[in-house]
Amino acid sequence: MSASLLRRGLELLEAPGRGKAPPGLQGGRDGPRAAGAARRRKRAPEPGSNKATVKGRVVKSAIEEYHKKKAVNHLRANLQYMLKGRFVANKAITEQVLAQNRGRKSKDQPPKKAAKKKPEGTVFTEEDFRKFEREYFGRP
Description:
InterPro entries: AROS. It comes from Balaeniceps rex. It is found in: Nucleus, Nucleolus. It is a single chain. By secondary structure, this protein is mainly α. The chain has one domain (3-137). It contains six helices and no strands. It has helices at residues 3-13, 34-40, 62-69, 75-84, 91-101, 126-137. The chain starts with a helix and ends with a helix.
């Protein structure tokens, strides 16, 4: 272990109220890089001082922040906007646009609509049925 790592470990383990060791006990650094190394070395944060504070900072209420960031329901405004415009496009034009956007694959094609068969009407009228009934059952 290097001496610097050992010193840092001792700084971390010392009691919070003691502070640093007296200058006579510390190893002297008289080399040309001693001042730069001291600047680079970080001092351990003391419990009483908080450097992250700003002058004139206003403490924000957590409730206000929650209400500010809470999701807003835009359904009513969107419905009014959508219902305001009553323009309906021509059906032929919409079919043409849909046909252009449709692919050539079978999965892209809409299902074929079967032509509705008209119910076949009877050839006989109600009067023909009555006439047949009279003849077959013998009722006058």
